[in-house]
Design a protein that fits this description.
By secondary structure, this protein is mainly beta. The chain has a four-stranded antiparallel β-sheet, with no helix packed on it. 3% of the residues are buried.
């Protein structure tokens, strides 16, 4: 999900305003390198043990300041 950036907003919204707690995650594993649009990113795959072994894939930008251009 992409959200517009509001420089006047504290924290910029996104995961800072997400109601889903992220404290139940298991161990993160580094995935491969991917492209999200024009951005090079590395995947971090996390298995949520509290969610019947559901997995989340966070893509973290590799260039400039790290941010999440894509989360699945």
């Amino acid at each position: 999900m992409r959200t517009p950036v509001d420089p006047d907003s504290p924290g910029g919204g996104g995961l800072t305003s997400c109601e889903r707690p992220f404290d139940s995650f298991g161990t993160a594993k580094k995935g491969g390198s991917i492209r999200v649009g024009d951005t090079r990113a590395v995947e971090v795959i996390v298995t949520d043990e509290a969610d019947k072994e559901g997995t989340y894939t966070f893509s973290i930008a590799q260039e400039g300041e790290p941010y999440l251009p894509k989360t699945v």
